[in-house]
Known about the structure:
This protein is of the alpha+beta class.
Amino acid sequence: MTTNWSISVPGSTANLGPGFDSIGLALGLYLTLDVTLQDHWEFEHRSEHLPVNVKVEDHLVYKVAKETAERYKATLPSCKVVMHSELPLARGLGSSASAIVAGIELTNQVCDLQLSIEERCKLASKMEGHPDNAAASVHGGLTIASTLPNGQLELINARDVDAAFAVFIPNVELKTEEARKILPSNYDKAYAVHASANANMLTASLLIKDYERAGKFMEHDLFHEPFRANLIPNYHEIRQTAQDAGAFGTAISGAGPTVISLISKDRVDAFVAKMKPLFPSYDIKAVPVDIKGVQVTKE
Ligand SMILES: Nc1ncnc2c1ncn2[C@@H]1O[C@H](COP(=O)(O)OP(=O)(O)OP(=O)(O)O)[C@@H](O)[C@H]1O
Ligand SMILES: N[C@@H](CCO)C(=O)O
Protein backbone atom coordinates (compact mmCIF):
# COMPACT_ATOMS: atom_id res chain seq x y z
CA MET A 1 0.00 0.00 0.00
CA THR A 2 1.23 3.51 -0.84
CA THR A 3 2.28 5.58 2.16
CA ASN A 4 4.43 8.24 0.43
CA TRP A 5 3.19 10.83 -2.01
CA SER A 6 4.97 13.72 -3.67
CA ILE A 7 2.60 16.48 -4.79
CA SER A 8 3.81 19.27 -7.05
CA VAL A 9 1.65 22.34 -7.76
CA PRO A 10 2.61 25.18 -10.13
CA GLY A 11 2.15 28.78 -9.12
CA SER A 12 0.29 31.08 -11.47
CA THR A 13 -0.37 34.55 -12.65
CA ALA A 14 -3.96 35.80 -12.79
CA ASN A 15 -5.84 38.36 -14.87
CA LEU A 16 -3.15 39.25 -17.47
CA GLY A 17 -4.74 42.70 -17.29
CA PRO A 18 -8.49 42.70 -18.08
CA GLY A 19 -9.15 38.97 -17.55
CA PHE A 20 -10.03 39.83 -13.96
CA ASP A 21 -10.90 36.81 -11.77
CA SER A 22 -11.22 34.66 -14.91
CA ILE A 23 -7.90 34.22 -16.73
CA GLY A 24 -5.04 32.26 -15.17
CA LEU A 25 -1.70 31.04 -16.47
CA ALA A 26 0.34 28.35 -14.71
CA LEU A 27 3.99 29.26 -14.18
CA GLY A 28 6.98 26.98 -13.76
CA LEU A 29 7.54 27.91 -10.10
CA TYR A 30 6.43 25.15 -7.77
CA LEU A 31 5.06 24.30 -4.34
CA THR A 32 5.95 20.70 -3.48
CA LEU A 33 4.72 18.49 -0.66
CA ASP A 34 6.22 15.18 0.42
CA VAL A 35 3.50 13.42 2.36
CA THR A 36 3.95 10.41 4.65
CA LEU A 37 1.43 8.80 6.98
CA GLN A 38 2.37 8.98 10.67
CA ASP A 39 0.57 9.04 14.05
CA HIS A 40 0.25 12.85 14.36
CA TRP A 41 0.07 15.87 12.05
CA GLU A 42 3.34 17.67 11.37
CA PHE A 43 4.43 20.29 8.81
CA GLU A 44 8.10 20.85 8.05
CA HIS A 45 8.88 23.92 5.93
CA ARG A 46 12.11 23.70 4.00
CA SER A 47 11.96 27.03 2.19
CA GLU A 48 12.02 30.71 3.11
CA HIS A 49 8.85 31.21 1.01
CA LEU A 50 6.53 29.54 3.49
CA PRO A 51 4.67 30.95 6.49
CA VAL A 52 6.48 30.72 9.83
CA ASN A 53 5.18 29.65 13.25
CA VAL A 54 1.86 28.34 11.94
CA LYS A 55 0.04 25.88 14.17
CA VAL A 56 -1.18 22.75 12.39
CA GLU A 57 -4.84 23.69 12.89
CA ASP A 58 -4.18 27.12 11.29
CA HIS A 59 -2.12 25.78 8.38
CA LEU A 60 -3.88 26.50 5.06
CA VAL A 61 -2.95 23.09 3.62
CA TYR A 62 -4.29 21.30 6.71
CA LYS A 63 -7.50 23.37 6.81
CA VAL A 64 -8.19 22.65 3.13
CA ALA A 65 -7.31 18.95 3.49
CA LYS A 66 -9.67 18.63 6.48
CA GLU A 67 -12.50 20.52 4.76
CA THR A 68 -12.10 18.32 1.68
CA ALA A 69 -12.26 15.14 3.78
CA GLU A 70 -15.39 16.40 5.58
CA ARG A 71 -17.05 17.32 2.30
CA TYR A 72 -16.60 13.77 0.96
CA LYS A 73 -17.28 12.11 4.35
CA ALA A 74 -13.79 10.60 4.49
CA THR A 75 -11.52 10.09 7.49
CA LEU A 76 -8.31 12.04 7.06
CA PRO A 77 -5.33 10.16 8.54
CA SER A 78 -2.49 12.07 10.25
CA CYS A 79 0.42 12.97 7.99
CA LYS A 80 3.90 14.42 8.02
CA VAL A 81 4.11 17.03 5.27
CA VAL A 82 7.49 18.34 4.12
CA MET A 83 7.03 21.48 2.02
CA HIS A 84 9.26 23.37 -0.41
CA SER A 85 8.15 26.50 -2.26
CA GLU A 86 9.52 28.65 -5.05
CA LEU A 87 6.55 31.01 -4.69
CA PRO A 88 7.10 34.06 -2.53
CA LEU A 89 4.09 34.83 -0.32
CA ALA A 90 1.68 37.65 -1.11
CA ARG A 91 3.41 38.65 -4.33
CA GLY A 92 0.66 37.86 -6.85
CA LEU A 93 2.13 34.52 -7.93
CA GLY A 94 -0.68 32.33 -6.62
CA SER A 95 0.92 31.00 -3.45
CA SER A 96 -2.35 30.61 -1.54
CA ALA A 97 -4.11 29.02 -4.53
CA SER A 98 -1.27 26.50 -4.88
CA ALA A 99 -1.60 25.68 -1.15
CA ILE A 100 -5.36 25.14 -1.62
CA VAL A 101 -4.82 22.89 -4.65
CA ALA A 102 -2.17 20.97 -2.67
CA GLY A 103 -4.49 20.49 0.34
CA ILE A 104 -7.26 19.11 -1.89
CA GLU A 105 -4.81 16.79 -3.64
CA LEU A 106 -3.41 15.58 -0.31
CA THR A 107 -6.85 14.40 0.79
CA ASN A 108 -7.64 13.06 -2.68
CA GLN A 109 -4.55 10.85 -2.43
CA VAL A 110 -4.39 9.74 1.22
CA CYS A 111 -8.17 9.08 1.34
CA ASP A 112 -8.17 7.61 -2.19
CA LEU A 113 -11.14 9.77 -3.18
CA GLN A 114 -10.40 9.56 -6.91
CA LEU A 115 -11.77 13.04 -7.52
CA SER A 116 -11.87 14.07 -11.18
CA ILE A 117 -9.79 17.04 -12.34
CA GLU A 118 -13.06 18.97 -12.82
CA GLU A 119 -14.15 18.32 -9.23
CA ARG A 120 -10.74 19.34 -7.82
CA CYS A 121 -10.71 22.48 -9.94
CA LYS A 122 -14.25 23.44 -8.94
CA LEU A 123 -13.51 22.91 -5.26
CA ALA A 124 -10.20 24.82 -5.36
CA SER A 125 -11.84 27.73 -7.21
CA LYS A 126 -14.66 27.84 -4.67
CA MET A 127 -12.25 27.84 -1.74
CA GLU A 128 -10.04 30.53 -3.35
CA GLY A 129 -13.12 32.62 -4.24
CA HIS A 130 -12.42 32.88 -7.98
CA PRO A 131 -11.25 30.44 -10.64
CA ASP A 132 -8.15 32.15 -12.06
CA ASN A 133 -5.09 31.06 -10.03
CA ALA A 134 -6.69 27.85 -8.80
CA ALA A 135 -7.79 26.64 -12.26
CA ALA A 136 -4.32 27.31 -13.70
CA SER A 137 -2.62 25.46 -10.83
CA VAL A 138 -4.88 22.43 -11.33
CA HIS A 139 -4.82 22.25 -15.14
CA GLY A 140 -1.56 23.92 -16.19
CA GLY A 141 -1.34 26.25 -19.21
CA LEU A 142 -3.74 29.09 -19.86
CA THR A 143 -7.17 28.84 -18.27
CA ILE A 144 -10.23 30.96 -18.96
CA ALA A 145 -13.08 30.23 -16.60
CA SER A 146 -16.45 31.41 -15.36
CA THR A 147 -19.34 30.03 -13.35
CA LEU A 148 -22.86 29.53 -14.76
CA PRO A 149 -25.86 30.62 -12.66
CA ASN A 150 -26.36 26.96 -11.57
CA GLY A 151 -22.86 26.97 -10.04
CA GLN A 152 -21.29 24.94 -12.84
CA LEU A 153 -17.68 25.99 -13.46
CA GLU A 154 -16.96 26.19 -17.19
CA LEU A 155 -13.35 26.30 -18.30
CA ILE A 156 -11.27 26.48 -21.45
CA ASN A 157 -7.71 25.26 -21.10
CA ALA A 158 -5.09 26.13 -23.75
CA ARG A 159 -1.72 24.59 -23.13
CA ASP A 160 0.20 25.55 -26.26
CA VAL A 161 1.21 29.07 -25.27
CA ASP A 162 3.86 30.09 -27.76
CA ALA A 163 5.26 33.14 -25.99
CA ALA A 164 7.47 33.91 -23.01
CA PHE A 165 6.88 35.72 -19.71
CA ALA A 166 9.19 37.64 -17.42
CA VAL A 167 8.29 38.61 -13.87
CA PHE A 168 9.42 41.60 -11.82
CA ILE A 169 9.08 40.52 -8.17
CA PRO A 170 9.55 43.36 -5.68
CA ASN A 171 10.84 42.81 -2.17
CA VAL A 172 7.52 43.84 -0.61
CA GLU A 173 4.31 41.95 0.08
CA LEU A 174 0.78 42.97 -0.87
CA LYS A 175 -2.07 40.95 0.58
CA THR A 176 -4.74 40.12 -1.98
CA GLU A 177 -7.36 41.13 0.58
CA GLU A 178 -5.90 44.66 0.72
CA ALA A 179 -5.64 44.92 -3.07
CA ARG A 180 -9.31 43.85 -3.45
CA LYS A 181 -10.62 46.31 -0.85
CA ILE A 182 -9.50 49.20 -3.02
CA LEU A 183 -11.66 48.22 -6.01
CA PRO A 184 -14.99 49.94 -6.70
CA SER A 185 -18.11 47.95 -5.85
CA ASN A 186 -19.91 49.11 -9.01
CA TYR A 187 -18.95 50.22 -12.50
CA ASP A 188 -20.81 52.59 -14.78
CA LYS A 189 -22.53 50.75 -17.69
CA ALA A 190 -20.48 52.25 -20.54
CA TYR A 191 -17.30 51.75 -18.51
CA ALA A 192 -18.13 48.09 -17.82
CA VAL A 193 -18.96 47.46 -21.49
CA HIS A 194 -15.57 48.87 -22.50
CA ALA A 195 -13.78 46.86 -19.79
CA SER A 196 -15.51 43.70 -20.95
CA ALA A 197 -14.66 44.39 -24.62
CA ASN A 198 -11.00 44.73 -23.65
CA ALA A 199 -11.16 41.39 -21.84
CA ASN A 200 -12.76 39.78 -24.90
CA MET A 201 -9.98 41.08 -27.12
CA LEU A 202 -7.29 39.89 -24.71
CA THR A 203 -8.80 36.40 -24.61
CA ALA A 204 -9.34 36.12 -28.35
CA SER A 205 -5.82 37.39 -29.08
CA LEU A 206 -4.29 34.85 -26.67
CA LEU A 207 -6.26 32.00 -28.19
CA ILE A 208 -5.29 32.85 -31.78
CA LYS A 209 -1.71 33.46 -30.57
CA ASP A 210 -1.66 37.08 -31.68
CA TYR A 211 0.60 37.99 -28.78
CA GLU A 212 1.37 41.49 -30.01
CA ARG A 213 -2.33 42.34 -29.80
CA ALA A 214 -2.72 40.42 -26.53
CA GLY A 215 0.02 42.63 -25.08
CA LYS A 216 -1.86 45.78 -26.07
CA PHE A 217 -4.98 44.60 -24.24
CA MET A 218 -2.95 43.42 -21.23
CA GLU A 219 -2.16 47.12 -20.82
CA HIS A 220 -5.80 48.23 -21.22
CA ASP A 221 -7.53 46.83 -18.21
CA LEU A 222 -10.29 48.90 -16.67
CA PHE A 223 -11.53 46.49 -14.00
CA HIS A 224 -8.69 46.69 -11.47
CA GLU A 225 -5.38 48.12 -12.67
CA PRO A 226 -6.38 51.81 -12.64
CA PHE A 227 -7.32 51.43 -8.96
CA ARG A 228 -4.34 49.30 -7.94
CA ALA A 229 -1.60 51.15 -9.84
CA ASN A 230 -0.63 53.25 -6.83
CA LEU A 231 -0.12 50.10 -4.73
CA ILE A 232 2.40 48.69 -7.18
CA PRO A 233 5.94 50.07 -6.85
CA ASN A 234 7.29 51.53 -10.13
CA TYR A 235 4.15 50.38 -12.03
CA HIS A 236 4.32 53.05 -14.76
CA GLU A 237 8.12 53.00 -15.05
CA ILE A 238 8.26 49.23 -15.49
CA ARG A 239 5.49 49.21 -18.10
CA GLN A 240 7.15 51.93 -20.15
CA THR A 241 10.67 50.52 -19.86
CA ALA A 242 9.47 47.02 -20.71
CA GLN A 243 7.61 48.32 -23.76
CA ASP A 244 10.70 50.23 -24.92
CA ALA A 245 12.69 46.98 -24.58
CA GLY A 246 10.29 45.03 -26.81
CA ALA A 247 7.71 43.53 -24.44
CA PHE A 248 4.29 43.08 -26.06
CA GLY A 249 2.63 44.14 -22.83
CA THR A 250 3.01 44.30 -19.06
CA ALA A 251 0.34 43.85 -16.39
CA ILE A 252 -0.01 43.38 -12.66
CA SER A 253 0.38 39.68 -11.82
CA GLY A 254 -2.83 38.77 -9.98
CA ALA A 255 -3.39 41.32 -7.25
CA GLY A 256 0.29 42.35 -7.34
CA PRO A 257 2.81 43.60 -6.40
CA THR A 258 4.68 41.49 -9.00
CA VAL A 259 4.26 42.65 -12.58
CA ILE A 260 4.56 40.35 -15.58
CA SER A 261 5.61 41.06 -19.16
CA LEU A 262 4.58 39.10 -22.24
CA ILE A 263 7.38 38.86 -24.80
CA SER A 264 8.50 36.69 -27.68
CA LYS A 265 10.50 33.60 -26.75
CA ASP A 266 13.58 34.66 -28.73
CA ARG A 267 13.81 38.03 -26.93
CA VAL A 268 13.11 37.11 -23.33
CA ASP A 269 16.67 36.41 -22.15
CA ALA A 270 18.01 39.68 -23.57
CA PHE A 271 14.99 41.47 -22.10
CA VAL A 272 15.67 40.13 -18.59
CA ALA A 273 19.38 41.01 -18.86
CA LYS A 274 18.43 44.56 -19.84
CA MET A 275 15.86 45.01 -17.07
CA LYS A 276 17.96 43.70 -14.15
CA PRO A 277 20.33 46.72 -13.82
CA LEU A 278 17.42 49.15 -14.35
CA PHE A 279 15.38 47.72 -11.44
CA PRO A 280 18.09 46.33 -9.13
CA SER A 281 15.84 45.84 -6.09
CA TYR A 282 13.59 43.43 -8.03
CA ASP A 283 13.97 39.73 -8.64
CA ILE A 284 13.53 39.75 -12.44
CA LYS A 285 13.44 36.45 -14.31
CA ALA A 286 11.98 34.61 -17.26
CA VAL A 287 9.40 32.11 -16.04
CA PRO A 288 8.33 29.18 -18.20
CA VAL A 289 4.67 28.31 -18.63
CA ASP A 290 3.79 25.09 -16.77
CA ILE A 291 1.65 22.82 -18.94
CA LYS A 292 1.06 19.93 -16.56
CA GLY A 293 -0.77 21.42 -13.58
CA VAL A 294 -0.85 19.51 -10.30
CA GLN A 295 1.19 16.29 -10.40
CA VAL A 296 1.47 13.36 -7.99
CA THR A 297 4.06 10.62 -7.72
CA LYS A 298 3.54 7.67 -5.36
CA GLU A 299 6.02 5.29 -3.76
N1 LIG B 1 2.40 27.75 0.46
C1 LIG B 1 1.63 28.04 1.50
N2 LIG B 1 1.51 27.19 2.53
C2 LIG B 1 0.69 27.47 3.56
N3 LIG B 1 -0.03 28.59 3.66
C3 LIG B 1 0.07 29.47 2.67
C4 LIG B 1 0.89 29.24 1.55
N4 LIG B 1 0.77 30.31 0.70
C5 LIG B 1 -0.08 31.15 1.28
N5 LIG B 1 -0.51 30.66 2.45
C6 LIG B 1 -1.43 31.30 3.40
O1 LIG B 1 -2.51 31.85 2.66
C7 LIG B 1 -2.88 33.11 3.18
C8 LIG B 1 -2.83 34.12 2.10
O2 LIG B 1 -1.49 34.09 1.63
P1 LIG B 1 -0.92 35.15 0.64
O3 LIG B 1 -1.16 36.50 1.20
O4 LIG B 1 0.45 34.79 0.21
O5 LIG B 1 -1.80 34.82 -0.54
P2 LIG B 1 -2.48 35.77 -1.49
O6 LIG B 1 -2.73 37.08 -0.82
O7 LIG B 1 -3.61 35.01 -2.06
O8 LIG B 1 -1.40 36.10 -2.54
P3 LIG B 1 -0.82 35.41 -3.75
O9 LIG B 1 -1.90 34.80 -4.58
O10 LIG B 1 -0.25 36.60 -4.33
O11 LIG B 1 0.19 34.47 -3.24
C9 LIG B 1 -1.90 33.40 4.32
O12 LIG B 1 -2.53 33.04 5.54
C10 LIG B 1 -0.75 32.48 4.05
O13 LIG B 1 -0.08 32.10 5.21
N1 LIG C 1 -8.07 37.86 -9.64
C1 LIG C 1 -7.54 38.05 -8.32
C2 LIG C 1 -6.18 37.36 -8.23
C3 LIG C 1 -5.61 37.38 -6.85
O1 LIG C 1 -6.12 36.37 -6.06
C4 LIG C 1 -7.39 39.53 -8.08
O2 LIG C 1 -6.90 40.22 -8.97
O3 LIG C 1 -7.76 40.01 -6.99
